[in-house]
Amino acid sequence: MGRSTALVLAVSVTALFALASPSQAASSYGIKAVAIAASKKGAPYVYGATGPREFDCSGLTLYAFRKAGRTLPRTADAQYESTLRISSTQRTPGDLVFFPKGSTMGHVGIYAGHDKIWHAPKPGTRVRLERIWTGSVRYTRAN
Q: What CATH code would you report for 3-141?
């Protein structure tokens, strides 16, 4: 998927979401972050990598938001602590989705709309769009 195709996809998803819930339109930087993450589809997961060709989960979110004009800390835990908690009913494309593991955040992705995230799942995988597989998630929004 090319960068322009990813941007069109991100804008389309956001437009559909906004029609369903006009009071919760996604932020412009959130839409950009979704498009940037989408443009990295197929990039390999490498622990500790922050792009532009390889990523771990928080490295992908860090990279996408930095390119979109927002600064996030390096790790999933620090990203969770530095962002605004929101409910699942408030989520919009470009929000962060965290997957708790014990007392820490074990994984993070970027909400793409329709219960899907862009993420770098784990070693041996590549950046991809995937349906959220559990209800045990927390949502935040970058300030």
A: 3.90.1720.10
